[in-house]
Amino acid sequence: MKLLPILLFTFMFFSFSSEEKSQDPLVNLETLSTEFNYEIRYATPNNFIGETLYDCPKCLLRPEVAEALLKANQYFCEKGYRIKIYDCYRPLDVQKKMWAKVPRPTYVGNPYGNGSIHNKGAAVDITLETIDGYYIEMGSDYDYFGREAHIDNYNFSKEILENRKLLFEGMRKFGFNTIRTEWWHFSFRKNWSYKTLNVPLPCD
User: Which Gene Ontology terms cover its molecular function (predicted)?
Assistant: First the structure.
């Protein structure tokens, strides 16, 4: 009979430890590596809303997600490319502003439902560029809401299809999943235990 309390304690301990690990604070990617390039569109009016939504251009992620992204970027760097980042963690209040302007769940996560994986610090919007910073064609601009952005659209040149294939396969290799309507969006597959957050970006 003494075995049951021990098993219950062990289960509770590991469950708690696992939950605590999944809720680690967000980390600033710039403090971990200098090998990324950034164009945080929502810190400018150059986005689908046409308004500046972030007070500063920061890329925050869960530590586990940041670690996976570092590995992915190293993979691309070895092939002559690097990741250019458009968006990372997004406060829930910003998600609500987006939804108020574009209430289309195909492209904008409903903040009053499941929200976006960006709100959990477990998704990134990215593209690839050469190590020297030259543009790589992907078939549409970032945040273009139309058929050209869909990953199941193959009506492109061989060059664009190869660029997309490189991006998709590289990110999937390190634990990121694609979504059908946005070639730039990648959600870390182990995101189900992360809480939705509304902490402001640190703009010190």
Answer: D-Ala-D-Ala dipeptidase activity; metallopeptidase activity; zinc ion binding
